[in-house]
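Action item from last meeting closed. Structure (249 res):
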């Protein structure tokens, strides 16, 4: 049977005191929780299958609250996310709800989160993001970035930047967002995607990520990606979901 396999984990890394990342996979969520062993979930190919990573903003109050709110809201809306307009409206709703939560709990003012993810249908993949979490196409031997970082170019001599220009929430006063959304056809021969926070992509170069994905599959690949981030110092929370689409043999 044609199906989607999602192998995921979330970990605080070696520097942060706690995990502010959250995951949504179909109706399942993992919020501000640590897992060192990847969990693999299977879904039939057909109905919309959501996979999303939300990275709560460090240095702001309630990063884990914002990421959990967004992950749970997207998971609840997942069955109806079958076109780009529905995805856009869901992200705009998430942004409003983060600000509404801060109005109800003033000590959380300024909380926010990035989000990146995809929705797999029977014929296409809807990719979305706000912030610097990423969606990568790992179907071939190289990585192709499908998301768009909301960040300025890194300074000379550096590969990354910690500046994020757009998030869900993240300011004291409410503001709108302009989500990045793109639709790609689902390859007939199957496909492979990586959704992750910058806790993976900042310390681990794309070439190393691609090499790991070439040598490993599903849960083994997810574990090796996490290990690579840890071996690189684990400077941030590490959350990733490897999405493999398998068609009928």
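Sequence:
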């Amino acid at each position: 049977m044609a199906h989607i396999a999602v192998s995921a984990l979330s970990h605080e890394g070696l520097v942060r005191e706690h995990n502010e990342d959250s995951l949504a996979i179909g109706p399942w969520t993992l919020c501000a929780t640590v897992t060192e062993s990847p969990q693999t979930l299977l879904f039939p190919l057909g109905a919309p299958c959501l996979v999303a990573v939300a990275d709560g903003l460090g240095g702001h109050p309630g990063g884990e609250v914002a990421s959990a709110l967004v992950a749970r809201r997207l998971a609840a809306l997942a069955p109806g996310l079958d076109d780009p307009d529905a995805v856009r409206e869901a992200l705009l709703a998430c942004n409003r709800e983060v600000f509404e939560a801060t109005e109800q709990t003033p000590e959380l003012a300024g909380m926010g989160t990035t989000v990146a993810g995809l929705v797999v249908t029977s014929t296409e993949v809807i990719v979305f993001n706000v912030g610097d979490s990423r969606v990568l196409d790992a179907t071939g031997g190289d990585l192709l970035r499908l998301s768009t970082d909301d960040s300025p170019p890194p300074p000379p001599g550096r590969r990354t930047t910690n500046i994020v220009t757009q998030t869900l929430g993240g300011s004291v006063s409410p503001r709108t967002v302009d989500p990045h959304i793109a639709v790609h056809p689902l390859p007939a021969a199957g496909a492979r995607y990586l959704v992750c926070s910058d806790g993976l992509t900042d310390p681990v170069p794309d070439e190393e990520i691609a090499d790991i994905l070439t040598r490993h599959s599903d849960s083994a690949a997810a574990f090796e990606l996490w290990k690579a981030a840890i071996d690189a110092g684990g400077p941030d929370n590490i959350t990733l979901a490897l999405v493999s689409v398998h068609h009928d043999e």
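Note appended to the action item: The chain is about 25% helix and 30% strand.
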